[in-house]
Design goal:
Blueprint: E1 10-12, E2 17-19, E3 29-31, H1 34-42, E4 49-51, H2 76-82, E5 86-90, H3 96-105, E6 109-112, H4 117-131, H5 134-155, E7 161-165, H6 180-187, E8 190-192, H7 206-212, E9 216-220, H8 238-241, E10 245-248, H9 250-254, H10 260-283
Parallel strand pairs: 3-4, 3-5, 5-6, 7-8, 7-9, 9-10
Antiparallel strand pairs: 1-2
């Protein structure tokens, strides 16, 4: 097994950007998170991938690559056979003990942060440095930032509307103000009703949702057509009164990649319709 003894730590965030130097650009990469797999392809370095994690399914070329496990369990034998010179792990999704174990074996590990929207562009640039695809990374990062700014310019001044984003119903999870989904809500002119909570993906109770009275309820298509059916028991909630329950494309809204642009566009359109529904209800 080819083992690279030096560890590269990459923290991709808007406040702090560090890339540990490595002898040369990585040639054989294994990604342990689907969003990182997408980002490698987004910068034009997909040919460097020799293995991916479970649930990696975009772009379609990924389906031809061997799967080495997921964020929690890594097939060490498979990994050894692939002889990677760089492992990519997701800061928010790969447990610290998994990272420690991989480094202890001697693998070169890069930790990528993609919590906020600007982190995504920064992660692209960091991956460009690691793979030698700097030009492709710079183009992809700039394009992402410009499209985000375009959405912001178009929608951020729209009338405010209170939004509840439902990650799951049982248990009832949402996102706080630091999550990229909450950033998209803000860009579209909405206010995340749980933006003030400390945890990135906190659990909340039904009473708290009712008390904060969202005017819009959002979830991903993974939740199914009955995602909001239980909320019908509280007809006084604004989102129920106005008929403002919308599903967003699951892969796009659920992964911190360039495809968040598509999710953001869908979200902004949904919030625009929600404002129309609210206005119509107020005059009836």
């Amino acid at each position: 097994m080819a083992v690279v003894l030096m560890t590269a730590i990459v923290t991709a965030c808007s406040e702090q950007k560090k890339t540990a130097s490595i002898p040369e650009s990585a040639q054989r990469i294994v990604s342990l998170a689907p969003n990182l797999t997408e980002l490698v392809f987004a910068i034009g370095a997909g040919e460097r991938l020799v293995g991916v994690s479970a649930w990696s399914d975009y772009p379609r070329e990924v389906l031809e690559l061997p799967v080495v496990g997921d964020a929690f369990t890594v097939d060490q034998e498979q990994l050894m056979l692939l002889e990677p010179d760089l492992l990519l792990v997701w800061e928010s999704g790969t447990p610290a003990h998994t990272v420690d174990e991989l480094r202890a074996v001697g693998y070169n590990v890069a930790t990528i942060r993609t919590r906020g929207l600007d982190d995504i562009a920064t992660a692209m640039l960091a991956l460009g440095e690691l793979t030698g695809h700097r030009d492709g990374a710079a183009k992809a990062a700039l394009d992402f930032r410009l499209q985000i700014q375009s959405l912001r310019d178009r929608y951020q001044q729209e009338p405010a509307i209170r939004v509840f984003y439902q990650v799951s119903s049982r248990p009832l999870y949402t996102v706080n103000g630091e999550h990229f989904v909450s950033e998209l809500i803000s860009i579209c002119g909405g206010n995340n009703i749980f933006g003030d909570l400390n945890a990135l993906a906190p659990t909340v109770d039904v009473e708290a949702v009712v008390d904060r009275d969202p005017e819009v309820m959002l979830a991903s298509t993974d939740a199914g057509d009955d995602a909001f059916i239980e909320w019908e028991r509280w007809p006084a909630i604004g989102a129920i009164r106005y008929g403002n329950q919308f599903l967003l494309p699951a892969d796009e809204i659920g992964r911190a990649t360039g495809r968040l642009i598509n999710a953001g566009q869908a979200m902004c359109i949904a919030l625009q319709q929600a404002r129309i529904n609210r206005d119509q209800a107020s005059v009836e």
